[in-house]
Amino acid sequence: MFYKTNDDALGITVKEFVDEWYEKQDYILVDIRDTEERQSAGTVKQTFNISMYEIPDQIEMAPTHIVCLMLCQDSTKAEQVTKYLKNNGYNNMIYIEGGIDELLKAVPELKG
User: Fold this and answer.
1) Pair 77, 84: CB distance under 8 Å
2) How far apart are CA 79 and CA 34, in angstroms?
3) What is the DSSP string of 9-78?
4) Do residues 28 and 69 make contact, with C-beta atoms less than 8 angstroms apart?
5) How much is the pLDDT for 9?
């Protein structure tokens, strides 16, 4: 199912993710950390992995039919990538505030 997102909305809190998104499963979790970051800090189950540095070269492959929830370790890079994608017409992108650190505290079963 497609959810229209507010063009101005960039992020959601981990609480909003847990309360409003987690059980629905009609989104894609996108981990934008590079391989070294994922290996050193751990992984999240059920994520699509692409380094933030690869996104400009592969932007045309970004899905438009489903909400993509962007993740990095603490949400700093995810916010930047979300802004970049929204500025390029991908309004279905949102980042999770607090990043993977906060997400795994709230939903430990997602730890890979």
Assistant:
1) no
2) 16
3) --EE-HHHIIIIITTT--EEEEE---HHHHHHH--BTTEEE--TTTHHHHGGGS-SSSEEEEE-SSSHHH
4) yes
5) 66
Domains and CATH numbers, the chain: 11-110 (3.40.250.10)
pTM of the model: 0.86
Question: What is the reported pLDDT for 2?
Answer: 33
Q: State the 10-residue block means of pLDDT for the chain, 112 residues long.
A: 50 93 88 90 88 91 91 95 94 94 92 88
Closest C-alpha to 49, from 73, 31, 67, 61 = 31
The owner of tokens 């992108």 is: 93
- Burial code of 29-60, b = ≥16 C-beta within 10 A, e = fewer? bbbbbbeebbeeeebbeebebbbbeebeeeee
pLDDT of 84: 94
Q: Are 11 and 82 in contact (CB under 8 A)?
A: yes
